[in-house]
Design brief:
14% of the residues lie in helices and 34% in strands. By secondary structure, it is α+β, with helices and mostly antiparallel strands.
C-alpha cells in the first residue's frame, strides 16, 4: 500500500535528511520517526499549544522489518561501551571541541546541563569543528563529557573524563568538573520529569561522584565539591547567573537528587530461605528499622528476626506467635504488637519492647500488671513528637482485639502508655462499646499524629467505625462510619486494614473491597479505586502503609506495592504507581513496608521473602552476597541454585545438598550445612579464596 511505501521511504531516507554525521544517530532518529508514526506523539509548545500526532498502524511489511533488523541491529553491534562508564555508549567527539586538564587538577564538581535541543542535534553540534553563527562569525568550541537521552535514558560519552570538556564557561569548573547534558528542550521543561532519563542520569551521577570522591549532595558554597547546575558556576561578579541552564525548578532539583541519592545507596537485595538459610519461612508480615539501622522483621509463627552488620539473626523468644506490627520510637526503640497463636492470646500475646539494636534487655507488656485491655494486639502507633508527661518514655498507642483463648476472655480496646510505673498502659474507653458483644470484636488498627489518633473498631455501636481521639488529652472527638463522614464511600461493615497520617497533612485509610480513602487537610474525602492499581475488589494487608518526610506514601496490597507521589492530585490515578514483580519485588503480596533513611531504600516484607528495594528506577536485579543450593546435582546447572544462577568466583556459597564439581571451580567462601557436601570429580579442582 501507499502507507507501507511511505514508511519504508521514511526509514530509508531519514538517515540522509537529518543533517547528522554519525551513523548511529541517523539510524536512531529514523527509528524514532517510525515509532512516532506507529505510536503517535503529544508535545507542548512554548505557548502551551498541544501538538498531537494520531498513531497510525504501520503494518510494516517483511521488507521493512528486514530493513530494521539490518540497520538497527547493526547499530547495536557497532556501538562500544563508554570507556569511563560501562552503562553508556562511546561517542567520542573530535578533539577540536575538548582539551587537556591541568596537571594538578582534581575532579571535584559534577555539573548538570540541559541541551535545549534534541539529543541527536546536540551530539551533531559537538561533532562540528568549524562553527559559525548566522552571520558567518566563528563560534567557540563547546562539549560535555556525557549526554543523556530523554526517551529511554541512553547515555553517550562524548569526552573522556581525563580530558576537559568546554562546558561550564569558567576555567575552574571546566578543569575540575564533569559536565553532563540532559535532553530537555526549552519549549517543554517537563521533559525533566522523564523517569527513564532521571534513572539513567542518577546512576551515572552516582557512579561518577563515587569514583571521584565528589559528595552526593547539592553545592553549598561555590568552590566546594558537590553537584552543581550550570547556572551556579557561570555567574557574574555579584553571583547572578549568566545562563538559565539547566532550567530546573527547586522541585525538579529535589527529584533529581532523590534519584541520585537512591542510586548511590546500598544495592537492592533479596532475602529468603534460599539466600538466607537461617530463615524458617519466606512469609514475612511486618518490618521496621530501629536503633543503629537494625532491621526487625516478624512472621506468623515463624519467629522474629533482626538484620544488623549484614546478617540476619533469629530471636529465641516467642518463636510461634503472630507478629502483627512493628513501630520505632524517637530513641530508636522498637515496639512490637503480637497476638499469640492458635487461640492462646491470653498466654503469649502482648507488647514487646527492644530498647536498642540487641535482643538483650527487652520488656514484655500484657493485661496482667501492665494494663493492656487484652493480649491480642494488632497494631501500634508511636507519637514521636512528644514524651509521656515529664518522663523520657515514649507515647505508645496500641489497638487490641478481643481475647478469647487460654481460658480467659477480655474485650478489645485502645491503650496508651508508657507510664513509668505499673500499670504502664491506660485503657481508653471513650467512644468504645465495652460489653459482651464486643468480646467478639475489638480494635484492629491505629494511626495518627501529634493532634489526633484514629483507630478502627468492628461491631462498635452496631457498625464498624474509625474512632477519633485527641492525641494529647485522650478526649473523644467523634467517629467516621457509613453514616457519619463516610456516607456513600463505605458500608456499615467496611473493613479498614491500615491507618496512616502523612507528612503533608493527609490522612490515609485502606479499605478492603473499596480502595484507598484519603482525607485532605481541609477534611475532604477522596476514594481511589482505579483498576489499573487494583482489581475490581481491592485487597490490602494489615498495617500495610508507610511514608517518608517528603510525603511519599506506600501501600501494601495483594497485587503489589502502590505509591503516591507527594504534591500530586489525590483523586488522579496518575498520581499513583503500582510496582510488582516486574519491577523487582519478590512477590506481589506486599505485607509490610518501612522506609530506611540510612540505606535510602524501602524494606518490603512479602509472602516470598524480604526485599531491600528502591521504587525509583527499580528493576529485577538484586545483589546476592550468598548463593545457596536448591537441590542435588551438578555445580554448573543453574537449576540447582536458589537464585537460578551459577555462583561466580567472587561469591559466597552455602551447600545444603549433594553437589558434584566436574570442572575447575573458584569461589570466595564455601560453607556446607548438615546434609550438604561437594564431590570434586578428578581432575577438576575447587579453589576457595577466603578460608
Amino acid at each position: 500500500s501507499k502507507i507501507k511505501i511511505n514508511i519504508y521511504a521514511a526509514l530509508f531516507m531519514s538517515q540522509y535528511i537529518t543533517g547528522l554525521q554519525m551513523e548511529e544517530m541517523k539510524t536512531s532518529l529514523a527509528q524514532r520517526y517510525y515509532d512516532i508514526i506507529n505510536n503517535g506523539s503529544r508535545s507542548v509548545t512554548l505557548w502551551r499549544e498541544i501538538l498531537y500526532i494520531k498513531p497510525t498502524n504501520a503494518n510494516v511489511t517483511a521488507k521493512v522489518s528486514a530493513w530494521k533488523l539490518k540497520h538497527i541491529n547493526n547499530k547495536v553491534a557497532r556501538v562500544s561501551a563508554a570507556a569511563d562508564y560501562p552503562g553508556g555508549v562511546s561517542a567520542i567527539i573530535p578533539a577540536c571541541n575538548y582539551g587537556a586538564r591541568t596537571d594538578a587538577s582534581e575532579i571535584n564538581f559534577y555539573i548538570v546541563h540541559y541541551t535545549a535541543a534534541t539529543y541527536q542535534s546536540a551530539i551533531n553540534w559537538f561533532n562540528t569543528c568549524d562553527r559559525v553563527d548566522e552571520n558567518g562569525n566563528p563560534l567557540g568550541a563547546t562539549s560535555a563529557h556525557y549526554i543523556v537521552r530523554n526517551a529511554d535514558g541512553e547515555i553517550s560519552q562524548l569526552v573522556l573524563e581525563k580530558d576537559r570538556a568546554f562546558a561550564a564557561g569558567v576555567d575552574l569548573y571546566n578543569h575540575q568538573g564533569i559536565s553532563v547534558e540532559h535532553e530537555v528542550i526549552v519549549s517543554d521543561l517537563a521533559m525533566w520529569e522523564s523517569e527513564q532519563m532521571l534513572c539513567a542520569a542518577s546512576q551515572l551521577c552516582a557512579d561518577v561522584c563515587n569514583r571521584n570522591g565528589i559528595p552526593l549532595k547539592r553545592k553549598q558554597i561555590n568552590g566546594n565539591a558537590g553537584i552543581y547546575g550550570h547556572n551556579e558556576v557561570k555567574i557574574d561578579a555579584n553571583g547572578n547567573p549568566l545562563t538559565l541552564c539547566p532550567n530546573l525548578t527547586p522541585e525538579r532539583w529535589n527529584q533529581f537528587m532523590i534519584h541520585v541519592t537512591g542510586a548511590g545507596s546500598e544495592a537492592n537485595k533479596l532475602f529468603n530461605t534460599c539466600t538466607t538459610p537461617i530463615f524458617t519461612t519466606n512469609n514475612f508480615k511486618t518490618i521496621n528499622v530501629g536503633k543503629d539501622g537494625a532491621v526487625w522483621a516478624g512472621t506468623n509463627a515463624g519467629g522474629l528476626y533482626k538484620y544488623s552488620a549484614g546478617e540476619w539473626t533469629p530471636w529465641g523468644g516467642y518463636p510461634t506467635v503472630n507478629y502483627q506490627d512493628i513501630k520505632t520510637d524517637q530513641n530508636g526503640g522498637v515496639w512490637i504488637a503480637q497476638n499469640g497463636y492458635n487461640g492462646a492470646q491470653s498466654i503469649t500475646g502482648g507488647m514487646l519492647y527492644f530498647p536498642n539494636a540487641s535482643f538483650e534487655g527487652y520488656s514484655y507488656f500484657g493485661t496482667v500488671v501492665h494494663g493492656l485491655p487484652s493480649n491480642n494486639l494488632r497494631s501500634v502507633f508511636v507519637d514521636t513528637t512528644r514524651y509521656n508527661g515529664p518522663t523520657t518514655l515514649p507515647v505508645v498507642w496500641s489497638a487490641c482485639y478481643a481475647m478469647t483463648g487460654g481460658g480467659a476472655a477480655k474485650p478489645g480496646g485502645i491503650a496508651r502508655g508508657v507510664n513509668p510505673v505499673a500499670p504502664q498502659f491506660n485503657s481508653i474507653k471513650t467512644g468504645i462499646e465495652i460489653d459482651n458483644t464486643f468480646k467478639t470484636g475489638g480494635v484492629f488498627y491505629i494511626g495518627g499524629n501529634a493532634q489526633e489518633i484514629w483507630s478502627f473498631a468492628t461491631n462498635n455501636f452496631g457498625r464498624n467505625q474509625i474512632i477519633r481521639h485527641n492525641a494529647q488529652t485522650n478526649a473523644l472527638i467523634g467517629a467516621y462510619d457509613a453514616v457519619n463522614g463516610l456516607a456513600g464511600l463505605v458500608s456499615d461493615q467496611f473493613l479498614a486494614k491500615a491507618i496512616y497520617f502523612d507528612a503533608k497533612g493527609n490522612k490515609w485509610v485502606t479499605v478492603n473491597g473499596v480502595g484507598i480513602l484519603v482525607q485532605d487537610k481541609d477534611g475532604n474525602w477522596t476514594k481511589i479505586s482505579d483498576q489499573t492499581l487494583f482489581t475490581a475488589n481491592p485487597f490490602f494487608n494489615n498495617n500495610g502503609i508507610a511514608g517518608d518526610t517528603s510525603g511519599n506514601v506506600y501501600f501494601g496490597t495483594l497485587y503489589g506495592l502502590v505509591s503516591y507521589k507527594p504534591g500530586s492530585a489525590l483523586d488522579d490515578a496518575d498520581s499513583y504507581t503500582l510496582y510488582t514483580t516486574a519491577q523487582g519485588l519478590p512477590n506481589n503480596n506486599v505485607q509490610g513496608i518501612c522506609i530506611d533513611t540510612l540505606r535510602k531504600k524501602l524494606w518490603v516484607a512479602t509472602g516470598d521473602g524480604i526485599a531491600l528495594w528502591a521504587p525509583l528506577c527499580s528493576n529485577t536485579t538484586f545483589t546476592r552476597k550468598t548463593f545457596t543450593t536448591s537441590k542435588d546435582g551438578d555445580w554448573l546447572s543453574a537449576d540447582n541454585w536458589c537464585s537460578g544462577q551459577v555462583p561466580s568466583p567472587t561469591d559466597e556459597v552455602i551447600i545444603r545438598h549433594r553437589i558434584n564439581i566436574t570442572t575447575d571451580t573458584k569461589v570466595k567462601m564455601l560453607k556446607c550445612l548438615p546434609g550438604g557436601f561437594t564431590t570434586v570429580v578428578s581432575p577438576a579442582k575447587l579453589e576457595i579464596t577466603q578460608k
